[in-house]
TrEMBL record:
<dbReference type="InterPro" id="IPR037401">
    <property type="entry name" value="SnoaL-like"/>
</dbReference>
<dbReference type="InterPro" id="IPR032710">
    <property type="entry name" value="NTF2-like_dom_sf"/>
</dbReference>
<protein>
    <submittedName>
        <fullName>Nuclear transport factor 2 family protein</fullName>
    </submittedName>
</protein>
<dbReference type="Pfam" id="PF13577">
    <property type="entry name" value="SnoaL_4"/>
</dbReference>
<feature type="domain" description="SnoaL-like">
    <location>
        <begin position="6"/>
        <end position="128"/>
    </location>
</feature>
Length: 133
């Protein structure tokens, strides 16, 4: 599953850069067409690419200097060659300008549980569950 882990790491990196840069559609496309995003920060789960795109658009607009840093990524459970559970930690970091210098603050550290499946030959997230630690 080493090759799969590299593909998953690449997808998670692209996903973080996409939401941070406002590339909402690219972020949503890291999910399956009916993918689900669940977080205790939001009242309802976000379901499907259209809603995921709208979610990412709003997030980038309201958080212009936010960075998603994904770390401690591991395949928690291999279900089949085309399906696995991946666990990681996510740091939400914000940068601000203050008195001519940049300040960095870690706003949140969470645990991410992703259900990955191969969709049309490419790893995609079927469901993401964010938990606060």
């Amino acid at each position: 599953m080493t090759g799969s882990l590299l593909e998953i790491l690449n997808l998670l990196g692209k996903q973080s850069h996409a939401i941070d840069s406002g590339a909402a559609q690219q972020w949503a496309e890291t999910f399956t067409p009916h993918g689900v995003f669940r977080s205790p920060t939001y009242a309802e789960p976000v379901r499907g690419r259209e809603a995921l795109t709208a979610f990412a658009t709003a997030f980038a607009k309201n958080n212009p200097r936010t960075h998603h840093v994904v770390t401690n990524v591991c395949i928690d459970r291999e279900i089949s060659p085309d399906e696995c559970r991946v666990k990681s930690n996510l740091l939400i970091v914000t940068t601000t300008q203050q008195h001519g210098s940049e300040r960095v603050a870690i706003n949140r550290i969470t645990t991410v549980d992703d259900h990955f499946i191969r969709h049309e030959g490419v790893w995609r997230i079927a469901e993401r569950i964010i938990t606060r630690d």
